[in-house]
Every structure is written in C-alpha cells, then in structure tokens.
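Protein record
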Amino acid sequence: MAYDKALADRVRDIMDDRPYVYEKTMFGGPCWFAHGNMAAAVLSGGGAMVRVGKDDFADLILEPGAEPMVMGGRESKTWLRVDEEACSSDERLREWVERGIAYAESLPRKSLPRRRQRQPLERPCGEERGGSAAVLVVVRPVGCRKPSIRVTLRWKSPGSILVCQTIP
C-alpha cells in the first residue's frame, strides 16, 4: 500500500523552514529527522507516526485520532499513530508534527548523514610490453565493497596521448 503523497507534501511544507531537518524513506513512506533523531513519518497504511516523550504519551493518547504505534507486535511508549482524520486539517497536522519535532530536538544530536566520500584505489593491471602500460583506477565509496566506477588508462610511450576508457 502506498503512502498519502498529499499528506507527505503537507508535512514537507511544515518542515521547510528548518535547515537541520532532513527526509529519508523508511517504513514504506517518508520520515523526517531533526538533528539525526526521527520525529515523524507518513505511513504507508495511511495517517502519520509522531514521536513524543514518555511523559506526554499518557496525555496525548487521549486525544482523538491518536493511538499507540504497534511495532513488532508491541505497543510503543514513545510513538503515536495519528489517523487520517486527525491529519485532515492543516492546523491539527501542524500541532502533531510540531510535537514530534520538539521531542526530537530535545534529544542529544546525532551526526547528520554525510555523502559517501569516494576513495581512489590504484592497481596496476598487466605488464609493460614494448613500451606500453596500463593502469586500472577503481573508485568506490568508502565502506563499500563493490566498486562503482572503473577506469582503465592506457598509454604507449611517454609523451603520447592518454586514452581513458570507462568500464561499467
């Protein structure tokens, strides 16, 4: 089942003015993180999931449209599932999302996701034969085992034109 894209767009609009909030797809829909801590998500089954503190949980569970989020067969004590009706008005949706952001901001910061740095690896491939040589340069993201780009450089003699060939 697909998530409600209109609801996701409305949550994005609420999150727009916060540079420390980023979005990541999990649980079949988009999730939002503040300083590395998950705050809210749009669920694939409809509605939203909002992170709240244990202290506020008992009071917020009494609000219409809110129920404990069930994960792995257990009811969560810090996550609420907010149904579609409770998310129908922009004002109520903003209240729920702001609660999730406020709680996520209160937690210790985690490092923000970084783009993978590419680390070049140089390995000679083949032997020099009659003044010609070949070098294989493999570029792969740090921490990954599979190379993402392979480039073979070939030249015949010093001062000649370098031929570059990309290998998928």
Q: What stands out?
A: The helical segments are 5-15, 54-60, 90-106. The first strand starts at residue 21 and ends at 26. The chain has a mean pLDDT of 77. Residues 118-167 form one domain.
